[in-house]
Design goal:
- The complex is a heterodimer of chains A (199) and B (117).
- Chain A is an alpha+beta fold and 199 residues long.
- Chain A has one domain: Chemotaxis protein chec, CATH 3.40.1550.10.
- Chain A has six helices and eight strands, in the order H-E-E-H-E-E-H-H-E-E-H-E-E-H.
- In chain A, strands 1, 2, 3, 4, 5, 6, 7 and 8 form an eight-stranded antiparallel sheet that branches.
- In chain A, a hairpin with a 4-residue loop joins strand 7 and strand 8.
- Chain A starts with 7 loop residues before the first helix and ends with a helix.
- Helix content of chain B is 47%, strand content 21%.
- Chain B has a five-stranded parallel sheet, sandwiched between helices.
- In chain B, helix 3 links the parallel strand 3 and strand 4.
- The radius of gyration of chain B is 13 Å and the shape is globular.
- Chains A and B meet through helix 1 and helix 6 of A and helix 1 of B.
């Protein structure tokens, strides 16, 4: 297995592209929830899948559930969204939802809008397109995190981790964009092309 | 004219500087990677136009914006951000920014900005 790393410049380019994509996605969700979100600086790392699962295990302790959405194309992988228990309750209150079914549905829709806008915009910034396979989004029980087949197919992942934070409504979540092994090399080429065009 | 480009991302700075040089020609361009550095540049140089990102480490754009204008009330501040929420735009305009523009700034957008200023 070839071990990939991102140079400082590649990381900077990816972080900036992610910033732009996340800004767009947040604006869409903010409008949907009629709320204002603060933007955080995305954290980008190349890590083995084992390490990622350990990160997920830590988040699992305080989470309500997490959802994933796969995307395909030259840039392919999966996005994952964690929302904690308290935030889920606050979301229910904010949207005046009465049943757990309605809340689950709202969280899946939130994940759908957030992650699809994010990955679509990120792909667009890299001059490519992504498509979403059906079922486009899944609710994953926390007890099943370590057994998720899709994560086990990756040996290494580029993890782009950022936080969605609606301070007034006290709703926050963690978003991860995971790219598959074969996509990392493509991504590195794209990032360097973008940088070279500016120098 | 003196310009100051403030962004923690090298890509964002390079991209903005390239567009600025393309439209404004051979002008003085200073660079800063966060709000604190921008304030230091403003201490030493009478900057006319500041391009300011919002999400930065050390000191973000929201905090730096009023301080920059306090140091040089005649400076024009253009916020260049990925945050396109209406409330973010309203907030920076209330803090004294002339414009709020969505990243990235290409040549066409830069022309638009300089025409407005």
């Amino acid at each position: 297995m070839q071990k990939f790393t991102l140079s400082e410049d590649e990381q900077d380019v990816l972080q900036e592209l992610m910033n732009v994509a996340y800004g767009n996605a947040t604006a869409v969700v903010a409008e949907m929830l009629d709320a204002f979100a603060s933007l955080s600086i995305p954290n980008i790392k190349v890590m083995p899948t084992k390490e990622l699962l350990q990160t997920f295990q830590k988040l699992k302790e305080s989470s309500y559930f997490f959802s994933t959405q796969a995307f395909n194309g030259e840039f392919n992988g999966e996005s994952a969204f964690f929302i904690n228990e308290k935030s889920a309750q606050n979301l229910a209150k904010h949207l005046e939802l009465e049943t757990q079914e309605d809340l689950d549905d709202a969280i899946l829709e939130l994940t759908n809008v957030l992650t699809s806008t994010l990955t679509t915009k990120l792909a667009q910034e890299m001059s490519t397109e992504v498509s979403f396979s059906l079922p486009s989004i899944s609710k994953i029980p926390l007890s099943e995190i370590e057994n998720i087949d899709t994560f086990l197919q990756y040996s290494q992942v580029i993890v782009i981790d950022t936080e969605l934070n609606f301070q007034d409504q006290k709703i926050n979540g963690n978003i991860f964009i995971l790219t598959k092994d074969e996509s990392i090399q493509w991504l590195k080429i794209q990032l360097n092309t973008i940088l070279e065009q500016l120098i | 004219m003196k310009y100051l480009v403030t962004d923690d991302s090298k890509l964002a700075r390079l991209s903005l500087v390239k567009s600025l040089k393309n439209v404004a020609g051979d002008v003085s361009i200073f660079q800063a990677t966060n709000g604190l550095e921008a304030l230091k540049v403003m201490e030493d140089e009478k900057v006319d136009v500041v391009f300011l990102d919002l999400t930065m480490p050390e000191m973000d754009g929201y905090e730096a914006l009023p301080k920059l204008l306090e140091m040089n009330p005649k400076a024009k501040v253009v916020v260049v951000s990925a945050d396109v929420q209406t409330k973010a735009k309203e907030r920076v305009i209330a803090l004294g920014a002339q414009l709020h523009m969505q990243k990235p700034i290409n040549v066409e957008k830069m022309q638009e900005i300089l025409d407005i200023l």
